[in-house]
Specification:
Elements lengths: L15 H4 L12 E6 L11 E16 L7 H11 L4 E10 L5 H19 L7 E8 L6 H4 L2 H8 L5 H9 L9 E9 L2 E10 L12 E6 L5 H13 L5 E2 L9 E6 L14 H23 L7 E9 L2 H13 L1 H8 L5 H9 L11 E5 L7 E5 L2 E2 L4 H8 L3 E7 L6 E8 L3 H8 L4
Parallel strand pairs: 3-4, 7-9, 8-15, 10-14
Antiparallel strand pairs: 1-2, 2-3, 2-9, 5-6, 6-7, 10-15, 11-12, 11-14, 12-13
C-alpha cells in the first residue's frame, strides 16, 4: 500500500479502527492559539504547516534526538532554547524533514523562525522554535512555505477543538489519524490544563525522545522545573515506545508552560506540587506516546511489555526495549505464534543481570481472563496452544516478564507487531 494511501485528510476517511482514537471534543489550556494550512508541499491540498502560539511568552523545554545526523530544525531550535529565551511559537512543517541538507538547510530553518517572529511582532530575540518531518535529504520548498506563514498566523489560528485537530493533522506524514489529547489536572486546589499532539507511525525507536511531540500547559511552571519534568516524563513514555527500531534525525519532544491559569510558580523546590505535576505530565505523555504505537505502520497489535524485579529501572527498561525491538518477537506476534523462546532470547542478550532460575514470562489477556504462563522459575510450561491463539487474537496484549533478581526495578514498554504491510509502506516511501 503506497504511503499516500495511509494519509487521511478528513474524519470521514478514517477507518473505524482509528477513528475511535480521535477526540470529538477537548478542553484546552488558556492562552494558546493553534492551527494549520496547506502550503502545497504535500499533494492534494493536505495540511502541512502548523503553528502553536502562546499569546504571552512561555517557558519552554525540549529533548532532542541523539542521532548524529541532527536535522537543521533540531540544531536551530536547540540553540534558541540554550539561550534561555522564552518562546512564543512552535512552527512545524510536514512533507520534508530538512535533514542532511547542509548549510542551506540551516539557513532555511533560521528563515522560518525569523518569518514567524516578524509576523507575530517578536523581533528582539528568537522566540520561535521549529520542527520538520518527512523525507530526509531534500531541501524545503521555501517558496511555498514562507508566503503561507503570515496567512496561517493572521487568519487560521484559533482556540477551538477544531483548530487543535487541524494543528494535529498538519504535522502528519504516514500517520493514519491525528494524535491529540487534552485533560485538566488539579494541583493543590489550582486547576490547570494540558494539551498534547504528536506525530509518528514509522522510524520510531527512542533514545532521548522520539518522533515529534508537543505538550503545552497553562500551569505556572518554571523553566528549570519544566525541563526536569519533561525529561522524567519522556524517559517513561516516549522513550518507552518502539515501532521498528529506527531512530529519526528529527526526533523532538517540546513543552511550553505559559502560566495563564495563575497560581504560585511550580519549581523544583515546590515539593508535593512539583511531584504531582511531574506525575501528571508522565501519565499524560504515556497516553500520547501510546497513540504513536497504535498507529505503527502496518501494525495489527498494540503490545505492552512489562518487566519487573530488575536490579534498576534502567535495567528493566533495557530488557523491555530489547524485547520490543526484536524482529523475531514482533513477527511471531503478527503470526499469532506463542514462540516464547524468542522473548527469552531477547532477555538473554539484553546484557542486564537476570536470575535464570527465577525468570517468569506470561501472556496477559486484556479481557480479564486467566494469564497464560509460558515460563515459571526458569522452567518451560506445557502451553495450551488453543488458549495461546485466543489471546493472540486480541488487538491489545500484555507480556509480563519477571527477571527474578532481588531488585525492585520495573518498567513498561509499548510496541507493536511487524507485518507484511510495514515492508510495503516503507518499500515505496518516496513514491
Amino acid at each position: 500500500m503506497p504511503v499516500q494511501k495511509r494519509l487521511f485528510s478528513s474524519f470521514s476517511q478514517l477507518s473505524n479502527k482509528y477513528s475511535k482514537y480521535v477526540p470529538t471534543e477537548g478542553i484546552y489550556p488558556k492562552g494558546y492559539l493553534v492551527g494549520s494550512v496547506s502550503t502545497g508541499v504535500k499533494k492534494n491540498n493536505q495540511l502541512d504547516l502548523s503553528i502553536i502560539k502562546s499569546i504571552n511568552p512561555a517557558n519552554a523545554a525540549a529533548v532532542f534526538t541523539t542521532n548524529k545526523f541532527k536535522a537543521a530544525p533540531v540544531q536551530v531550535s536547540k540553540k534558541i532554547l540554550d539561550q534561555g529565551n522564552k518562546i512564543n511559537s512552535i512552527v512545524i512543517n510536514s512533507g520534508c524533514a530538512n535533514a542532511v541538507t547542509g548549510a542551506n538547510g540551516l539557513k532555511d530553518a533560521q528563515e522560518i523562525v525569523k518569518t514567524v517572529d516578524q509576523t507575530i511582532g517578536s523581533t528582539d530575540v528568537a522566540s520561535t522554535i521549529c520542527m520538520s518531518t518527512g523525507v530526509i535529504g531534500q531541501p524545503l520548498q521555501m517558496n511555498k512555505i514562507l508566503p503561507q506563514i503570515p496567512k496561517l498566523i493572521n487568519e487560521n489560528l484559533g482556540e477551538s477543538h477544531e483548530s487543535w485537530v487541524s494543528c494535529a493533522k498538519g504535522i502528519m506524514t504516514t500517520d493514519t489519524f491525528p494524535k491529540l489529547i487534552s485533560r485538566s489536572i488539579n494541583i493543590n486546589g489550582n486547576t490547570y490544563t494540558i494539551a498534547g499532539l504528536s506525530k509518528g507511525a514509522g522510524m520510531i525507536c527512542p533514545n532521548m525522545a522520539t518522533l515529534l511531540g508537543f505538550l503545552v500547559t497553562d500551569a505556572p511552571i518554571s523553566s528549570g522545573a519544566l525541563q526536569s519534568i519533561l525529561k522524567y516524563s519522556v524517559d517513561r513514555s516516549f522513550n518507552c515506545i518502539s515501532v521498528d527500531g529506527d531512530m529519526s534525525t528529527n526526533d523532538t519532544i517540546a513543552a511550553l508552560a505559559n502560566g495563564e491559569a495563575g497560581g504560585p510558580e511550580i519549581n523544583e523546590s515546590s515539593g508535593e506540587s512539583y511531584n504531582k505535576i511531574r506525575d501528571e505530565f508522565t501519565q499524560f505523555a504515556q497516553s500520547l506516546a501510546q497513540l504513536v504505537v497504535r498507529d505503527g505502520e502496518g501494525a495489527t497489535k498494540f503490545v505492552t511489555i512489562k518487566v519487573q524485579n530488575a536490579e534498576s529501572f534502567k535495567d528493566a527498561q533495557k530488557v523491555a526495549k530489547t524485547i520490543s525491538n526484536s524482529p523475531l518477537v514482533k513477527t511471531a506476534l503478527y503470526g499469532k505464534d506463542a514462540n516464547w523462546g524468542r522473548i527469552l532470547c531477547a532477555i538473554g542478550y539484553s546484557d542486564v543481570p537476570v536470575n535464570t532460575e527465577k525468570t517468569n514470562v506470561s501472556f496477559i489477556p486484556t479481557d480479564g481472563s486467566a494469564d497464560l504462563k509460558l515460563l515459571v522459575n526458569g522452567e518451560p510450561q506445557q502451553i495450551d496452544e488453543t488458549r495461546a491463539s485466543e489471546i493472540l487474537e486480541f488487538e491489545d496484549l500484555e507480556i509480563h516478564v519477571d527477571l527474578g533478581t532481588n531488585g525492585d526495578g520495573e518498567a513498561s514498554f509499548w510496541t507493536c507487531d511487524l507485518s507484511h504491510e510495514y515492508v510495503t509502506i516503507n518499500g515505496d516511501y518516496r513514491s
